[in-house]
Amino acid sequence: MLRSGARHPDADEGASTSGERDCRTRQLHATLAEYLQLEHKFQPKLCLPANGENGEVTTGARDGAAHVLRCLKVWFDLPADVLISAINLFDRFLTKMKVRPCHIPCITVSCMNIAMDEHAAVTKTSRKVTVEELVSVSQSACTAGDVARMSRVIADKLSLAERCSVTAIHWLRLLRTLVARAAAELQLRALVLPESELINLLEIAVCDAGCVNSRTSELALVLVYHQLEKELVELSRAAAEGAGEGQAVPEDAYYLYEFAAQLQAHCHMTDASLVSARNLVRGVISRYEARQAAPQRQRLVWRLSERTLKVLRPTDRLTSLLPTIEEQHFAVDVTPKRTRSGSESSESEETSDWPRSPVLPVYCDN
Fold it and tell me: Where does the Cyclin N-terminal domain lie (predicted)?
């Protein structure tokens, strides 16, 4: 799948290594064909209004649910597969069913519950987070029984008993592996394409409702080449500044764009849809980076219930009204009149009486 005239890997490697590489390549292409057959089955098609006038779920409510799922993922230190799967389940369920906004919190927690069960089954590990813990941390105002019942409804409507979902993170890992192998055959060791950064970009994209209806294959391909362009720009800047001597961008790096065109044709992606997905992803990432760069001017505000507030500060016995000060005895002038003589000075008396007496002394000259 490389350019014409490129050096064949069998020129300097043994037959066994070449056979293993060819076997691995065939496995990757078989996985790509399988993903293409299943892509339409796990592709959501949401049509949500921006403003809900008739009690409909809006795009804002959908994005809010996605950010709640991401917060749960960070809180319980869950893998990214669980988050991407939960968001995919949420979007597919809203595609098939018309729900009320009051049911969104329960559906959100239920999708996370199903995604955790799927991940535990795939990885053959025990689940570490219980349903009660999910309900408690999410503050969804539902019970563990509600989540269990809603999970069964979602699994039934989406036919989850057949197999696990093929989500955008599966596409991202597959296309990253293909592009990385192509870069290795071109001996482009400077291009890394770190999986952690790609997954972080994917989380940012799937949490935005604008990228929901994009094909998962297009979304993954756009993210891979977005990271590739970023690394090429950094290499060019380093070579221009002289800090990376010997690390200039080789010409073979641009043949990876030909490889992207081959992937696009193999996955039946049109130019219009791919450009649209690229513009959506760049817009979402630019808005996210702009929010990160902006200084946080909002102060942290704790919202407490009345019961919790009384426990923290027992002010229920305090009143906001102060007692009335009795001032009748101040009406009578009990200060004796003092006469001033030429030999006596009242400066010491005035000074001594000022800080103690509640009534200002008045001196009269006779």
Answer: 35-158
**pLDDT of 95 above 80:** yes
CA 21 to chain centre: 37
Least Cα distance to 115 among 175, 153, 155, 142 occurs for: 155
Identity of residue 288: Y
Q: What is the model's pLDDT at position 147?
A: 95
Per DSSP, the three-state class of 285 is helix
CATH number for the domain harbouring residue 101: 1.10.472.10
Residue-wise pLDDT for 44-94, tens only, equals 999 988 887 778 899 999 999 999 999 999 999 999 999 999 999 999 999
Q: How many CA atoms lie within 13 Å of 156's alpha carbon, on the beta-carbon side?
A: 6
Long-range contacts of 131-138 (CB under 8 A, 24+ apart): 133/76, 134/72, 134/109, 135/109, 137/72, 137/75, 137/76, 138/68, 138/72, 138/105, 138/108, 138/109, 138/112
Whether 50 maps to a domain, the answer reads no
pLDDT value at 247 more than 90 = no
Q: Are 181 and 151 in contact (CB under 8 A)?
A: no
Smallest CA-to-CA distance from 250 within 193, 187, 194 is with 187
Task: Find how far residue 245's CA is from the centre of its chain.
Answer: 38
Half-sphere exposure of 190 (CA within 13 A, CB side): 20
> Structurally, how many domains does the chain consist of?
2
16 falls within a domain: no
Q: Are residues 194 and 126 in the same domain?
A: no
pLDDT at 239: 74
CA dihedral 119, 121, 122, 125 (to 10 degrees): 80
* Whole-number average pLDDT of the chain: 82
Closest C-alpha to 45, from 294, 247, 251, 216 = 216
Domain that holds residue 67: 56-158
Tokens standing for residue 26: 């065939």
Residue where one domain finishes, among candidates 258, 290, 322: 290
Q: What is the pTM of this model?
A: 0.74
Same domain, 284 and 206: yes
